[in-house]
Amino acid sequence: MVTMTTAQNALKDIYLDVVANQLNTQTNALYNQIKNSNADVYGREVQKLAPYGINGGVGAGDEGGVLPKSAENKYVLFTSSLKNLFGTIEISDKAIRASADDAGAFVNLLNAEMEGLLQASKFNLGRMLYGNGSGLLASISSASSTTNLITCNNVQNLIEGMLIDIYSSSGTQISDFTGIRILKIDRNNKTIQVSKNITSTFQSAASGAQIYVQNSKDSEISGLGKVFETSGSIYGLSRTLYPWLNSYQKEKTSSETFNEIYLQTAIDEVSLRTGNDINFLVTTSAVKRKFASTLLSNSRNIDTTNLNGGYQSLSYNGIPLVSDRFVPDGTMYLLNTNDFVMHQLCDWEWLCNEDGSILKQKEGYARYFATLVKYAELVCNKPGSQCMLTKLA
Asked: Between β-strands 237-238 and 233-234, what pairing exists: parallel, antiparallel or unpaired?
């Protein structure tokens, strides 16, 4: 007979390892290249000593001359808060009771809930890798109380079923549009329909409003968007005071052609500036197709390589080249993935009550929920050794 105890044991002993493994290996190709580590985690923060420049105690001189002065390595302290990553499943009391005498039906119920949690977690974790930690999904251009549609600047970070919060252009949360659900997305016209009727008041103030995942504003991991910002600070350090934190960025002009020479020039420039090697290229599908077309037009073979997690990629001079849905249009990132570490307090775990229970009753409802949690932050040891190319397509 299926009971709450057997349900919780199944979540803990069977599903947890499967879910954690899939999130850690099948989120996307880039995530697979980033190592996880429990090092440098102190309480609620990641505190990491990062070297920069070179040791200064080197020189040349006469045989009997004075030896070079010692000059140790230079370090700065990177500091960033651990981010709280959550994923929740919910099961009704009726569904549990209906499958109490049918273990197979209950397994199917849990399988469906866990698959939904996996899909949502992979989507959002993959999206965060390319964000700047703000959690901004899209900006609103306009809204219509007549058609009940919201028009956005882009919808690549949005998906049906997502729960979102909307903030005004001044940064104030709009109370009537908190935790609302995306019902439909028209990707051609960049419009969404939500589970809240658009009022004339909202319509008049919609331009410039911003969309975030529910309760996630300014609470997401520091992804590539943070690494490639051009102002402000990163990991608690000013980019102005420490200019070596600034990445190499190049915008293609209309007179330039995106081809092998263009790409190799950027790779060489990173090496000349920092001595770092690029080992991973990630871009949009359109840019990847454009690059492949360039290779074919020059009668070059298109090499491929297999990556961890079963991903297959193009290969340029032995460097994997993959596409990802969350890369901004016309953009390619040239990365050294050895410089990135996902610092974590723990791997994925179920959030437990004091008595160890995983499934908890939702207050005021005949439903139970369980929450998957991970406390982590993504840190790039050498932000200045990464490269971003834009306007490639």
From this structure: antiparallel
Which distant-in-sequence residues (6+ apart) come within 8 Å of 340 by Cβ? 33, 34, 35, 378, 379, 380, 381
User: In order of start, what are the domains of the chain with their CATH numbers?
Assistant: 4-55+73-131+343-380 (3.30.2400), 136-213 (2.40.30), 248-339+382-390 (3.30.2320.10)
Cβ(222)–Cβ(234) below 8 Å: yes
Residue ranges of the chain whose pLDDT lies below 50: none
> Which residues, in sequence order, are bridge partners of residue 160?
none
Residues in CB range of 66: below 8 A, 6 or more apart: none
- Which residues does 195 contact at the CB level (< 8 Å), separation at least 6? 180, 181, 182, 183
The pLDDT score that the predictor gives to residue 104 is 75
| 342-360 residues labelled b (16+ CB within 10 A) or e (exposed) | bbbbebbbbeeeeeeebbe
Q: What whole-number distance in Å separates Cα of residue 132 and Cα of residue 232? A: 12
Query: For position 55, what pLDDT does the model report?
Result: 61
CA gap 324, 280 in Å, rounded = 13
Distance CA 213, CA 136 (A): 8
Q: Give the predicted TM-score (pTM) of the model.
A: 0.91
Q: Which of 220, 224, 134 is nearest to 171 (CA)?
A: 134
Rounded to 5°, the CA angle 132-369-178 comes to 45
Question: How many CA atoms within 13 Å lie on the side-chain side of 331?
Answer: 15
Q: What is the pLDDT of residue 68?
A: 64
Predicted confidence at residue 60, as pLDDT, reads 74
